[in-house]
Write a structure and sequence with these properties.
220 residues, alpha+beta, 12-stranded mixed sheet, 3 helices
């Protein structure tokens, strides 16, 4: 009986084992089809009228996830949500994942798990997975708001926000937080934000919006 109890406990431990990440760090970028750096009046006006689409990108500097080394690899999530992102979702979001074309099969699976974990409910329902070259660069600039992402049909380019020239109503701030977990990011201006692929049956081109974040992520 004692032996059976020990086996049962061991089975529970194995079945409930969580995905492990060993010091995973890297760069992060996102853009969405609504302003994230804005005032409450403008944000409220956009609720469920826009902001249901986004591109999220991670590029690993170093570390492993699910016991798989991911140094230098990236993954991108293209999201179409039921409601404005940052608001309570009343329906299931669709996600297309774009995995680094250099990844092995084991690395591909680990990158998919990474995107699902960090994207939460927005990446829980993956409708398609593609492979492509992923270039995510954080460019040095005075306000640390410059970056680019190219991943197949998904593209983002950002610049720093200018508190004098980019304000509309005078009390803008980072109204919505970043969409992903474990992120330290600053709001930025999306010079380019587009998706022209077929994976989620929706496309957009939403340039010229105060709707981006970029920075870093760390999973301990």
């Amino acid at each position: 009986m004692k032996r059976l109890l020990l086996l049962a406990v061991a089975a529970l431990l194995v079945g409930g084992a969580s995905v492990q990440a060993a010091g995973l760090t890297g760069h992060y970028i996102e853009a969405r089809t609504c302003d994230v750096w804005t005032g409450p009046c403008f944000a409220n006006a956009e609720v469920n009228a826009s902001g249901k689409h986004a591109v999220l990108g991670w590029k690993v500097d170093k570390g492993d996830f699910d016991n798989v080394q991911l140094d230098g690899l990236g993954v991108v999530a293209v999201v179409a949500a039921s409601d404005t992102l940052g608001q309570k979702q009343t329906g299931e979001a669709k996600a297309l994942l774009i995995v680094d074309s250099r990844a092995t099969e084991a690395q591909k699976e680990a990158l998919i798990k990474l995107a699902k974990k960090e994207g939460g409910e927005l990446t829980a329902h993956v409708v398609s997975v593609e492979r492509a070259k992923i270039d995510l660069d954080i460019c040095p600039c005075e306000g640390n708001g410059c970056g680019t992402l190219t991943a197949g049909a998904a593209k983002i380019a950002t610049r720093c926000l200018d508190e004098k020239h980019d304000k509309v109503c005078g009390n803008e701030s980072a109204f919505y937080p970043p969409l992903a977990k474990d992120v330290k990011a600053r709001a930025a201006y999306a010079v380019e934000h587009s998706f022209s692929g077929k994976g989620i049956s929706e496309t957009w081109n939403d340039a010229g919006r105060r709707g981006a974040y970029l920075g870093s992520f760390e999973i301990k």
